[in-house]
Every structure is written in structure tokens, then in C-alpha cells.
Design a protein that fits this description.
- The longest helix is centred in the C-terminal third of the chain and has 32 residues.
- The chain is built from 12 helices and no strands.
- With about 280 residues, the protein is an all-alpha fold.
- The chain has a domain of about 170 residues: Methane Monooxygenase Hydroxylase, Chain G, domain 1, CATH 1.20.58.
- Keywords: Dioxygenase, Heme, Iron, Metal-binding, Oxidoreductase, Tryptophan catabolism.
- It catalyses: L-tryptophan + O2 = N-formyl-L-kynurenine.
- Pathway: Amino-acid degradation; L-tryptophan degradation via kynurenine pathway; L-kynurenine from L-tryptophan: step 1/2.
- Its cofactor is heme.
Length: about 280
């Protein structure tokens, strides 16, 4: 059957009419995405602020997709399958780091033109960021509070706290390999240094050829946290550059709060063992 709408010469075979066909914007649902920016002021830089945070949330959505799949693969013993997912999460964190470079082109004076429009909204209230921390093992039930007005989000975070974290599942693989490692007694508690787990990882790193899959899994987790730490540091630097030591719009101590967050370690056993090797 002859194509009723062939491409005109000189367009390299590209279709130029999409009446009744799936087009690029249709597949990606671009109309609602590109119409989701609603600045509340006339400030030029407010569009930058909105898009930077919206795109970060999209990357976080993908990170959660990959972390969830990686956790399932690890729990099922399919470690090699999880490596690609965890590597992708590290690259996602790299993208999130690059986003701060764009936001830092905004000066303090430019930010002040629309900051009052934010009210008490703050990145501290990002439920996806909180979910990433909960999945990784940095868990604090009190931090569900900012989402209590959205029951579906609060319930999703509570459900996550009822599941073993990514690192708890990894500890299960250590136990499966014969190491004397016990799962966390309280899955809702944050990951804490565990001498038994650190000793097990020490054995893995002492003989990587014997425990190659566990060795590579550990390094994938370290890669993830490495980029995650950089994201936190770049967040701190960006905030200090733009608002100095003012309190955050969400009520935190701003820079001082972000500096304290730099001390939070997701996988302490994997960092502590390095001093003993």
C-alpha cells in the first residue's frame, strides 16, 4: 500500500505529517510538562528556579525507579542485574549535581525579587528526596510530618519504613554468603555502624576475587553515596552563595542545617572499613 503522506524530497525520509499518528510530544506528554511552570512574580529568574527544581524531581523519580528495582534484584540474589541500576543512580546524581551549576548563575539580588512568593515551601519538603533517603537507609519517621497534609504521600513513606532498606537487603546477601551478619532489628531505624558487617566487608575487600560480586556491589553503593555527598555539598554551596546564612523558607537553619547533613553517612560500614585495610 502506498504511503498517503510521503516525505518531500530533501528531508532524509523524515515524516512531516502526524495526523492520527503517535508523535514525539504525544509519547512524552510534553504539553502538561511544559505548561506546568507558573511563576508568581514578574522576576525573570523565577522560571529558572522552577524548572531547576522540577527537573530535579523528575531525575529523583527515575532514581527511585532504579533503586527500587536494584533492591528487588539484590534481594533475589541477582546482583549483576543490580549493578547497572546502581550505576545509573550514580549518573542520575551526577545530573542533579550539574543542575546546581545552572542555579548558581542566579545572584542574591535576583533571588530576592521572588523569594517572598515561595511562602514556606522548601526543598526540605520534597517527598521524593525523603524517599531516596529512606530507601538508602537514612530513616527518621519524624520526617514524614511535613507530608501529613498529603495522606497518600505520608502513607507511601510509612510503607517504605516498614520495608528493609537497600542496605539491609545488601546485609542479607552477606549473610547468605556465610558471614555472621544479622539484619537490622528495627527496619525503620537509620543505618548505624555494625562491627560484624564491617568485619564481613573487610573479608570481602581482602579477597575480592573470591567475593567479586559482593565486592562490586559494595563499590556501586560507595559510588552512589559519593555522588550523593557531592549533591549535598553543592546544595550547601549554592544556598550559601545565594542567601548566605538566612533561615530557609521551610524553617530550617539554612546553611547550618545543610552543613550538619554533610555528616550523615548512608553506608558507614563501607567507609569505616577503608581505615582498616
Amino acid at each position: 500500500m502506498t504511503d498517503p503522506d510521503p516525505s518531500p524530497p530533501g528531508h532524509h525520509g523524515a515524516r512531516l505529517s502526524f495526523q492520527g499518528r503517535m508523535a514525539y510530544g504525544d509519547y512524552l506528554s510534553l504539553d502538561p510538562i511544559l505548561s506546568a511552570q507558573h511563576p508568581l512574580s514578574g522576576a525573570h529568574d523565577e522560571m529558572l528556579f522552577i524548572i531547576q527544581h522540577q527537573t530535579s524531581e523528575l531525575w529523583m523519580k527515575l532514581a527511585l525507579h532504579e533503586l527500587g528495582a536494584a533492591r528487588e534484584a539484590i534481594a533475589a540474589g541477582r546482583l549483576h542485574e543490580s549493578f547497572k541500576m546502581l550505576a545509573r543512580v550514580a549518573r542520575i546524581m551526577e545530573q542533579l549535581n550539574s543542575a546546581w551549576d545552572v542555579l548558581r548563575t542566579m545572584t542574591p539580588s535576583e533571588y530576592q525579587q521572588f523569594r517572598p512568593m515561595l511562602g514556606e515551601s522548601s526543598g526540605f519538603q520534597s517527598w521524593q528526596y525523603r524517599m531516596i533517603e529512606f530507601v538508602a537507609g537514612n530513616r527518621n519517621p519524624a520526617l514524614i510530618g511535613p507530608h501529613a497534609h498529603r495522606p497518600e504521600l505520608a502513607d507511601a513513606l510509612r510503607d517504605e519504613l516498614a520495608r528493609p532498606s537497600l542496605y539491609a537487603v545488601v546485609l542479607g546477601r552477606l549473610a547468605e554468603a556465610g558471614f555472621d551478619v544479622a539484619p537490622p532489628a528495627d527496619v525503620a531505624a537509620p543505618t548505624r555502624p555494625d562491627p560484624a558487617a564491617r568485619a564481613a566487608w573487610g573479608a570481602v575487600y581482602a579477597d575480592p576475587q573470591r567475593y567479586w560480586s559482593l565486592y562490586e556491589l559494595a563499590e556501586k553503593l560507595v559510588d552512589f553515596e559519593d555522588y550523593f555527598r557531592r549533591w549535598r555539598f553543592n546544595h550547601l554551596t549554592t544556598v550559601e552563595r545565594i542567601i548566605g546564612f538566612k533561615r530557609g523558607t521551610g524553617g530550617t537553619a539554612g546553611v547550618d542545617y545543610l552543613r550538619r547533613m554533610l555528616d550523615v553517612v548512608l553506608f558507614p560500614d563501607l567507609w569505616d572499613l577503608r581505615s582498616a585495610l
